[in-house]
């Protein structure tokens, strides 16, 4: 194999044209690999000897590289700042800036900090190599050198550099993705905390307005019934027994309402029978409690749904039926459950007055109350699903879609 000529060989013959020995035989190995843009690696050759620059750049271009050159440190810094190369071949001895100092400057610039530098030198002392590595170089080639070895090292370091940049880019994208996921998770946690607080307030209000008030009245009637009042005749005895009858009725009503509340929060039929029977039970409850006829249809596969998906869909159907009864002025409603292999869809329709979804969600977001759509959407999105809302033109329609392939479902 041909050796790179020494400096004395390059200058012998006094200005005669010099051709690069062995270049033709070296141009046959595998060409330089292009990056994702399709461009071959760019190499900056920094050497104060024009013959060396010419020979090395011709060798690189003949083997599929892009090559540019600089005669001194200032020109090298300017060239690298304009367009960072994939690799720099840097002569240690330059007329204006020491090669080691130039390497340190390149490593101090963000645009060129990761560009690998291979030192070229006529001196091969171990101490000088140590200084070169300390300055940031990745390799050291001593002149005269074999052109095949030069090409092999250039190929190796450009491949490693591009692989490193690719990994850094992938890591940055992955980090950004994780940061975004963490941001969304934090936002979801805040939203879920608000949802829990609103649910506590709703339960407290419902207990206060119904069961607690009835129990207070029962206590009053109990006090009235135990007050000493002499009974004069049968009519007086029946009149004295009236508070006890009212007391029993209030206690029975309170127990019924408490049982209903417990069933609505976690109905046994949902745990024992699954979502379909639970929706049928919910329809019967809506008809009895709100005089709202509800028709349920279930289609698709009968595979058991994940517990969290089942609970969210049931709670969503319950809240939407409450909206139909209390706000939509509907005379009937329909629940349609369709379960596919990868997605389950729950749709609730009514024939009520309809609503504008954007206005309602904005009002709920401002804390002005509403139909519970904002909290429902937050729970659905937490499971990787989405909500489709329609109802501005009369009648309401809300569709909940949940993926069954999500690990969180």
Q: If you had to describe this structure to a student in words, what would you say it looks like?
A:
α7 crosses α13 (373-382). The chain folds into two domains: 7-169, Response regulator (Rossmann fold, 3-Layer(aba) Sandwich), CATH 3.40.50.2300; 271-409, Heat Shock Protein 90 (2-Layer Sandwich), CATH 3.30.565. The model is unreliable at 1-28 and 366-371 (pLDDT under 50). The two termini are 65 Å apart. α6 links the parallel β4 and β5. The longest helix is centred in the middle third of the chain and has 80 residues, at 147-226. It is 55% helix and 14% strand. The chain has helices at 7-11, 23-26, 50-62, 73-82, 99-108, 126-135, 147-226, 234-265, 268-273, 275-290, 307-326, 357-365, 373-382, and strands at 42-46, 66-70, 87-91, 117-121, 139-142, 294-300, 333-339, 343-350, 386-390, 396-403. By secondary structure, the chain is of the alpha/beta class. The protein is built from 13 helices and ten strands. The chain has a five-stranded parallel sheet with strand order 2-1-3-4-5, sandwiched between helices.
Topology:
Layout: H1 7-11, H2 23-26, E1 42-46, H3 50-62, E2 66-70, H4 73-82, E3 87-91, H5 99-108, E4 117-121, H6 126-135, E5 139-142, H7 147-226, H8 234-265, H9 268-273, H10 275-290, E6 294-300, H11 307-326, E7 333-339, E8 343-350, H12 357-365, H13 373-382, E9 386-390, E10 396-403
Parallel strand pairs: 1-2, 1-3, 3-4, 4-5, 6-7
Antiparallel strand pairs: 7-8, 8-10, 9-10
Helix pairs in contact: 7-8, 7-13, 10-11
